[in-house]
Design brief:
The complex is a heterodimer of chains A (281) and B (413). Chain A is mainly alpha-helical. Chain A is built from 11 helices and no strands. Chain A has a single domain, classed as MetI-like (MetI-like fold). Chain B has 413 residues and is α/β, with parallel strands linked by helices. Chain B is elongated. Classes of the chains: A mainly alpha (281), B alpha/beta (413). At the A-B interface, helix 8 and helix 9 of A face helix 4, strand 6 and helix 6 of B.
Chain lengths: 281, 413
Amino acid sequence: MDIPRLPLAEWIDVGLDRLTERFAGATKLVADLMETAIDGAVDGLMWLPPWVAILAVAALAWRLAGVRTALLAAIGFALLWNLGLWEPAVQTLVMVLIATLVAVSIGAPLGVLAALSPTAYRIIFPVLDFMQTMPAFVYLIPAIPFFGLGPVAAIFSTVIFAMPPAIRLTTLGIRQVPADLIEAADAFGSTRSQKLFKVQLPLAVPTIMAGINQTIMLALSMVVIAAMIGAQGLGGEVWRAIQRNEAGMGFEAGLAVVILAMVLDRITQGIARQQAGREGP
Amino acid sequence: MSEQPSVKIAVRGLTKVFGDEPKPALDLLREGATKQAIFEETGLAVGVADASFDVLEGETLVVMGLSGSGKSSLIRCLNRLNEPTEGQILLDGTDIVRLARRELLALRRKKYGMVFQHFALLPHRSIRANVEFGLEIQGVKAEERAERSLAALKQVGLEGWEDAWPQQLSGGMQQRVGLARALAVDPDVLLMDEAFSALDPLIRRDMQQELVALQSRMRKTIVFITHDLDEALFLGSRIILMKDARIEQVGTAEEILSRPATPYVERFVAEVDKTKVLTASAVMRRARSLAFTTDGPRTVLRKMEEKDLGFLFVVEPDFTLRGLVRDDVALAAAQRGEKSIRSIMETGLAAVSPQTPVRELFGLLAESSVPAPVVDDAGRLQGVVARASLLEGLAENANGGSVPDEPALAGAD
C-alpha cells in the first residue's frame, strides 16, 4: 500500500506541545492555587478529630437523607477510620467534591445551552459521545504537561470524564418540561430568561440532581484511576496494593471506595427527593 | 336600541402553514386546494386558511370544530404563539403580526390572558404563586401581586386555597386556578383553549355556568375554543365553525342552527336539541293586525273582523305594548257608546323578550289562551309567538330552513 499512515498521534502531540508552551504558565499557576486549596481542605478536615467528622457527616446525612443513611455513614466512616484509611478517604472525598463542583458549574450551563439552542445541541452532544467513549486513562496523559503530576491533573481529567451526565441530564430535564407549561409561560409574555428561571430550571431540578449524582459517581471512579498520575487518596492505596501484589490491602481500599460511593449516592438522592418534595406533598 | 359593539380584534386573511417553507402550500391554497390535498402534495400542514372575522368587544366568541379543524392553531395566532404565515390581526387597530418581539411580549402581558385545556399549572408553585405568575412576569411588586391574586382567586370561588399545591386540587378546581391566573393580569382578551374539555361532564356544566355568570359581571372579550357544539351554543354570543382549516360559518347560535351555511354545518348541528338554543325571535311571527291606543272600540272590532281574529294587542303609535282587547269586551263597549279602548284593554300581559329560549315558551303558551307577545328592551312589540308558530318554527328549523308541509303540524293549533 502506498497510502501513508496518517500522523494523527504526531498532530495531537504537536498541538498539545504548542498549547502547553502557550498556556503552561497559566495552568501551572492554576495548579498551584488549586493544590493549595485542596491541601487546605484536606488539612482542615484532618484537623478535626475523626469522630467529630464522622458525627458531622452522620448528622448531615440524617438531615438530608434520613436515619438509615445516617447509620450507614456513621458505621461506614468508622470502619474507614478503624482500617487506617481515614486520611486517604478524606483526600479522595475532597478531590471528588471539587471535581464535581467544577464539572457541574461548567456542565449545567452547557446543558442549558444545548437544550435551548439546536445548534449548540448539534455541537455539544457528539462531543459528549466522544468524551464518554474515549477510555478514561487517555485523559490522564495530557493532564500532566499542563498541571504536572498530582491531584490537580487528576481533578482535570476527572472533570472531563465526569461532566457528560451533568450536561446530558440538564438538557434532558429542560427538554422534558411539558409543552403546555412552556406555552403558558410564553402566553403571559415571559422573556427567555424568565421562562428559564421561573419554569424550565425549577422543573428540571430533579433530573439535574440525578445528573449530579451520576457525576459524583463517575468522579469517584476516575479519582481512583487518577492515582496513576500521582493523585493520592484511596486510589493511591489501591495502586500501591497492585504494585505490591497485596490482595487484602487492595480489598480494604476498594471497600473504602464503595463506602464513600454509597454515602455520597444516598445523600445526593436524599437532596433530590427533598427538592422534589418541595413541589407539594 | 342596542348600541353597535366595537370591534376588538379584526382578523383579515389569516393563514397559518406549519413549516419553514410555506410558499408551495400558500400557492395551492390560493388555487382553492384542500388541507388534505396540500398535505399529500407538499407534506405541509395547513393550520388556518384565509380566515377573516371580527371579535367584538365584550362578546364570547366560540371557535368550534373537530380535532384537526384548525381551531387551536387559530387561537394561537391571536397572541402569536403560532406565527401567522399571512394576514393581519388588528387588536384595537394595531396589526400585532408586525410587532417586534419586545412589543409582542408587552402585548401578551397586558392584553391577553390564556387558559389551557390541561390547566398548565406550574407544579413547583403554590396556588397563590401560580395565580401571581403573570403579574410576576410583568414585574408587579409583591404586595400588589398578593392583593390581586387573592382577588382573582375570590372571583373563581377558591378563597382559602392559596397555600395549597396544584396536585392537591381536583381538575375543576385546577382549572379555576388557571382561570384566576388569567384574570389576575386583568386582560382585555381571554383566550380559552378547550378550557373545560378535560373536565367531567357535571363539573364542566358548572364551569360553563360560572363562566357565563363571571362574564356577565366582567364583560371581557373572550375567544373560546371547543369541539363540543352544546358548549359552543351555551357559551357563545357568536360561533365560528371551522373545518379543515377553513371557516365554514360565522353567526349566532341561532343563525348556525336555523340557517346552516353549508351541508357540513347542517350535519354538524343535526344532533342538537333545538329547544335548548332557539329563542323567541326565531319562532315569532308578525302580528296580523294591531290596535292602537288611539283607536275606538268600533275601529278595533272592524280590524278583528277583517282578519277573523278574536282579540288584538294594543300598542302606542311607537309600538310600545300596552295591553290586549278581546272582541266580546269591545262589542259591549261599542254598544255603550264608548270612544276609547283604554278603559277596556287588559294590561299586565306576560311579554317575553326576543332572547327568551323556546323551551320557556312552551309552559307560558300552555297556560294562555292568546299568543305570547315578544317585546324588545324598550317594550316595543316585535312579534308574537302562537302555539302553532312555535311548532312550525321548530319544524322549519329542523328541516334546515325549508317550509314544513306536514299536515299534522298545519292542524296543530
